[in-house]
Amino acid sequence: MTSGWCVLYRSTNYLYDGMGIGANLIEEVDNSGNVLARYTQSTGIDQPLAELRSGATSYFQPDGLGSITSLSTSAGALANRIPMTPTAS
Predict the structure, then answer these.
(1) Which band of pLDDT confidence, cut at 50, 70 and 90, is reported for residue 89?
(2) Which among 64, 62, 65, 59 has a CA at the least distance from the CA of 78?
(3) In terms of pTM, does the model score above 0.85?
């Protein structure tokens, strides 16, 4: 008798609207090509405005320096906080 195990690998592909500096994230897709999320960007570099995931839209909330710190729902409720960590200089 033989025994074995199987591991199911899942990956997410991040699709951008260009290459290099100035490219913005526009979609996340799985290995089968299913869209997991879509993003709306502002006219600046790497400044997301909204995310559509599983039929729900969330809005990115920046702090005074422009760093994204949280996501809010379409009703304005806090959906998720993004922890900020200090960087070493």
Answers:
(1) very low
(2) 59
(3) no
